[in-house]
Amino acid sequence: MIAGDDDLLRAVEATLFAAETPLSAEEIARHLGGAPVAAALEALVAHYAGRGVELVSRGGRWHFQTAPDLAHLLRREREEPRRLSRAAIEALAIIAYHEPVSRAEIEAIRGVQTARGTLDVLMEAGWVRVAGRRESPGRPTIYATTPAFLAHFGLETRRDLPGIDELRAAGLLDPIDDAYAALTGEGAD
């Protein structure tokens, strides 16, 4: 058991620093003999705010990360960006917005068949996981996003995904009427 508040704060900090993967508050508490860690986590967030590293929670899991304004200093010369096919990007978006979702549901939304390798690439990246089987005929496998997906895209929860209005404002979606008019040539006087 940890004696004082300062000792608990230091123990939580050390636990997070030494962890190989992000930890939930429950995992940290369990590691520290059941100590209440919520106040210590908030104190550490405040302590590291504005510093070179900061303590963040992504998907309910806590970890230290480089301050966003300094990330460019740590990029490696040979950084190889992950290139996803259009099909993989579409499948990832469908899974993120509709999870848990089956392959058949992904195909119905996309309007085309999804190759097995598409989902394999997303699982290899650690962004998608098998979430079980749907309780329906054939018991299809269902897929969901992972905490690594949230961390990679800087989201705390899936609720932080942009909504339709935000996507449209960013120019990522054309209004349906404008797209239809452009396709058919109507409205161009």
User: In the CATH hierarchy, what is the superfamily of the largest domain?
Assistant: Winged helix-like DNA-binding domain superfamily/Winged helix DNA-binding domain
Tell me how many strands there are. Answer: 6
The CATH class designation of the largest domain is Mainly Alpha
Report mean pLDDT, rounded to a whole number: 83
The tally of domains stands at 2
The residue ranges in which pLDDT falls below 50 over 5 or more consecutive positions are: none
Strand order of the largest sheet: 1-3-2
Q: Given the structure, what is the number of helices?
A: 9
What separation lies between the terminal Cα atoms? 77 Å
Q: From N to C, what is the helix and strand string? A: HEHHEEHEHHEEHHH
CATH architecture of the largest domain: Orthogonal Bundle
What share of the residues does DSSP label as strand, in percent? 5-15%
Main sheet specs:
3 strands, antiparallel
> Any idea of the CATH topology of the largest domain?
Arc Repressor Mutant, subunit A
Instruction: Tell me roughly what share of residues is in helical segments.
Output: 40-55%
Integer-rounded radius of gyration: 22 Å
